[in-house]
Write a structure and sequence with these properties.
8 helices, single chain, globular, alpha/beta, 4-stranded mixed beta sheet, about 290 residues
Length: about 290
C-alpha cells in the first residue's frame, strides 16, 4: 500500500472556446499523485480532508474510479479549494488559489495508516497552509520513524507562502525524514541551496524534473543518471510532475528491501508516464496499459 497525503482541489482550467471560459477539473498535487498511482495499478490510499460539497464528491468519485482506498479521507462542510491556472505558450502553468476556510486546511493527524503500508508521499499546498501543514509534518516524522519509504514533492506555490524564509527553514527540517526528494528546477531555484546540501541532510536520492530536458537523479552514494523527455504534442503540463511522483513510487515501493535501484529504468518509466499526461488537457495521468509498450 502507498499512502498519498495532501490536498484535493478543483483546477479551473482555461479553454479556447468560448473566450475566457474556465472548466472545472479535479486537481491538487497529492490528489493527482494518488489518481495516477491508482491508474498504474498500485494499491493506494488517499489521506486528506475533503469537502462534502459537490466538488468534493466529484473528487472522491475520480479516486474511486481509479481504485484508490478512501478510508483515510476526512470530510467536512467547508468549501473545496479552487486553483486557477494560467497557461503559457509552452503549456506550463502558473496558479492563483482560493484557500480561505477550505476543507483541506483542517486535516488532522490520523491515528494509524493501513497495515501493509510501504510508502508515504506528501507535498504541495498541504505543507504550506496551517493548521493542516503541522499535521502532515507530524505524519511524515511518525511514518519515517516506522521505516516507511517517504517521498516529498514541495511543488512550491509562492503565492501561498507568506514567509519564504521560514518555509525554507522548515523544508530543511523535513529532509531527515525524507527518503526521496523530488522537485522541479523551478522549485530548486526558489528554495536555494543545492542537491549536495539536500542529500547530506537526509534523502537517499534527489530527483529533478527539468521540463523538456527530462529527468535526473543524484544519490547519496554519488551516482548520477539522466533520461531525456519524450517528445510529444503538449496540451499542457498540468499534473505531469505529480505523475512523475506516482511512477517513482510505483517502481521504488515494489523493490524488496535492500535491493539496488535501477535508476535509468525508473526515470525512463516516469518520463514516459509524464509525457502521456502532457498530451491531455488538465491532470489526466495514464493507465498501466498505456505504458506497456
Amino acid at each position: 500500500m502507498i499512502v498519498v497525503g495532501g490536498e484535493a482541489l478543483i483546477d479551473l482550467v482555461p479553454v479556447a472556446q468560448p473566450p475566457g471560459a474556465l472548466v472545472p477539473r479535479p486537481g491538487g498535487g497529492p490528489y493527482n499523485t494518488a489518481l495516477a498511482l491508482g491508474r498504474l495499478g498500485a494499491r493506494t490510499a488517499f489521506c486528506s480532508r475533503v469537502s462534502a460539497d459537490g466538488f468534493g464528491e466529484g473528487l472522491l468519485d475520480g479516486l474511486r474510479a481509479a481504485g484508490v482506498d478512501l478510508s483515510l479521507v476526512q470530510r467536512g462542510p467547508e468549501p473545496t479549494t479552487l486553483a486557477v491556472p494560467s497557461l503559457a505558450p509552452d503549456g506550463s502553468a502558473a496558479y492563483r488559489f482560493y484557500v480561505e476556510g477550505t476543507a483541506d486546511r483542517l486535516f488532522t493527524l490520523p491515528p494509524a495508516l493501513p497495515a501493509g503500508t510501504r510508502a508515504l508521499a506528501l507535498g504541495t499546498c498541504s505543507l504550506a497552509l496551517e493548521p493542516g501543514a503541522s499535521a502532515y509534518e507530524a505524519l511524515l516524522r511518525r511514518e519515517s520513524g516506522r521505516g516507511l519509504l517517504t517521498l516529498l514533492d514541495p511543488n512550491i506555490r509562492p503565492a501561498l507562502i507568506g514567509d519564504p524564509t521560514a518555509y525554507r527553514a522548515r523544508f530543511l527540517g523535513w529532509l531527515p525524514y525524507v527518503s526521496v526528494l523530488k522537485l522541479s528546477e523551478e522549485d530548486a531555484r526558489w528554495l536555494g541551496g543545492g542537491v549536495s546540501d539536500w542529500l547530506a541532510a537526509g534523502p537517499s536520492a534527489v530527483v529533478l524534473t527539468r521540463g523538456a530536458q527530462g529527468l535526473s537523479v543524484r544519490t547519496r552514494e554519488g551516482a548520477q543518471y539522466e533520461v531525456p523527455a519524450r517528445r510529444v504534442a503538449v496540451a499542457d503540463t498540468i499534473g505531469a510532475g505529480d505523475t512523475v511522483n506516482a511512477a517513482l513510487l510505483h517502481r521504488l515501493s515494489a523493490l524488496p528491501a535492500g535491493d539496488p535501484v535501477d535508476w535509468p529504468s525508473v526515470l525512463a518509466y516516469a518520463a514516459h508516464a509524464a509525457a502521456l499526461t502532457c498530451t491531455r488537457a488538465g491532470a489526466e495521468p495514464p493507465y498501466a496499459a498505456e505504458l506497456s509498450g
